[in-house]
Design goal:
It contains 4 helices and 4 strands. The chain is of the alpha/beta class.
Length: 151
């Protein structure tokens, strides 16, 4: 059985803290999924994980997923229709470009952290936090194999 390389605990805490910080000012939801390998189109894999994690069920359809396949050296950033209609492909491209710089240096934690905070800025712009906001999805990094996700 192949095991999935996990980030160090300090890196996990940094990324989770970035998610919490980004979500403080928005009703949007951000998740990170780290897979071992992507054996198909990375956007298709990200979309599959997005749905399996229930990210398409947020009230305002404003979830964003960062999907990272370590061994395949591929990643994608996708958002649900609520946020995508405001930012289009340009935001996802900009976030990917920024993250890719850090990934090429082997600094996955900083790349993820920077991407999360940038996404949070846009979510805040279009979906500001309200008094009745509920954290609809967990903030923890999900490690796994996309086919093992239980909806």
């Amino acid at each position: 059985m192949t095991t999935l390389r996990r980030l160090q605990e300090t890196e996990n805490r940094r990324i989770q803290a970035a998610i919490e910080e980004a979500e403080k000012a928005t009703s949007g939801e951000i998740r990170v999924f780290i897979d071992r390998k992507c054996e198909s189109n990375v956007l298709d894999s990200a979309a599959y994980v997005f749905e399996r994690l229930g990210m398409n069920k947020t009230e305002k359809r404003n979830g964003v997923l960062i999907y990272l396949a370590i061994e395949s050296r591929q990643f994608a950033v996708i958002g649900d229709q609520g946020i995508h209609q405001h930012v289009g492909d340009e935001l996802w491209h900009d976030v990917r470009t920024s993250m890719q710089h850090f990934f090429q240096l082997g600094d996955f934690a900083t790349g993820l952290e920077q991407g999360i905070l940038r996404i949070g800025e846009e979510l805040r712009r279009y979906f500001p936090y309200t008094e009745d906001d509920v954290n609809e999805l967990p903030n923890e990094i999900v490690y796994g194999f996309k086919d093992d996700i239980q909806p």
